[in-house]
Amino acid sequence: QVQLVESGGGLVQPGGSLRLSCAASRSIASINSMAWYRQAPGKQREMVATITSSSSTKYLDSVKGRFTISTDNAKNTVYLQMNSLRPEDTAVYYCYADFPYDAYDYWGRGTQVTVSS
Question: Are strands 4-7 and 77-82 parallel, antiparallel or unpaired?
Fold first, then answer.
């Protein structure tokens, strides 16, 4: 079993920034992928950003140029730097991890991000 623990959410004004962190209880050096998803009230969960062990990244179109996903293998942590935040970014943000040779996908419990004036 792997635990993923998110932190860094909170209330921020439009145009502000937040950095989310997700600490894994297993080495992430050889992950298949890690990702951030989000789910707003009444909406389906959607992929925000993904990163592979080779640092290949993908982003949801609406966050391109504003959000950046990165990893720190020494800390087994994945980050999501969120800039120029908009009210429509308000959601619970979840960390996801896919490890090789592991039949399970892992999710964190989520961290709330609220963008409001």
Answer: unpaired
